What does this fold into?
Amino acid sequence: MLRMTCPDFAEALQARICADLEAEKIAHTPLKYRLADGQRSDKVLELRTAALEEALAKAESLGEQRAQEAETAAKKIAELEARIATLQQTIVKAEALAEQQRQEGQAAAKRVDHLVVELVAMTGEFVGMSKRVAEQTAAMDKLRAELDYYRSRS
It folds into this structure.
């Protein structure tokens, strides 16, 4: 079904008005073109018919043009709707990927936090072991010094 838009309606109405004005001009032709019994001559009727046919041809041509423009617009709308659907799917995929990466980032941050806790614990153990080794080394040095002292005295 062809929908007539305001510009189409205005152009069709304008063509109709022009045809009516032309027909009115023909209707007001001098009396010499009228027959004696008051009827119009064939020439007047032919001119009026020609004017109406011309207006009809213009209106039909305009209707064809508008129908083609409407069909082209409908195709473009369909193409744009398809493109919008594709872009919406792409957005959904991108959002899902972003969410997945966010979750992976959170998991990685938790792993890093856990590793830092382990590193701090191991560092504490290492410091404790270093202190014990230092204490043991100091004790051994003291014992060696005492042993050397007793050896030197005997």
Remarks:
- The first helix runs from residue 6 to 27.
- The chain has one domain: 6-121.
- The chain is about 85% helix and 0% strand.
